[in-house]
Design goal:
alpha/beta, Rossmann fold, seven-stranded parallel beta sheet, two-stranded antiparallel ribbon, 7 helices, 15% strand, globular
Length: 262
Amino acid sequence: MPVTSVKGLVGMVTGGASGLGRATTLRLVEQGAKVIVAIDFQAFGDDIKANKKIVAISGIDIRKEADVMKAIEECKTKCGRLDFVVNCAGIASAGGSIYDFKTGKPHSLEAFQKVLDVNLLGTFNVCRLAAGLIGKNEPVNGVRGCIINTASIAAFDSPPGNVDYVASKGALHSMTLVIARDLSEQMIRCVSIAPGFFLTPLSKPMLKDGLGALTKYTACPKRPGEPDEFAHLVQAILENPMLNGETIRIDAGMRMPFPSPM
């Protein structure tokens, strides 16, 4: 039996107004999918607002059950179903070591909590609520739908100074197989993507801090990733039903050095 196609599928992309989420949204609609874009307070570009295959919903805080249910109900009302979710909403590390011996200050507990709330709790909130609607689909090739989460290579190794971000992304990686098993009887897949250094609005401040120099530690190609290369992997996951319960690295073979050269 041939692999499936994203053509005709209905999906929701969180954080879909910029960066990896925006590239994912645009690629999937170009391939024939219809996408609900759920964001918080970012502005939608004209290419998203003008596309009839994209339903843009702003003011969605993925940490809040009522907000996520609003987006899911929009999928149900306007499209009749939900086939997949791609969770791209997230924030960067607040920065800083777990303890700064120069200043005598520990890492901010509030800053740590904020990163976990958005990256981990928010993603989990979308997964648990979207599964109910996805599970009502008729199976195709033994699958009713797919959930794709955005982890990071920081889940595996990272330079010092971003323990909050590492904790959030490491947890997403750890949850992947469990979610896949939890949803297996409903024939819903779960896959996580662990990108390396990609050129997005979230990464621009990191360039100023010298993180861009870390691309020399990639195997090949020695450059940052383009958002559409991430989106291409999302499409491949959606189209191949045998991908499940796994975190896939997309990092050009990057491995973080230690001590950090930054």
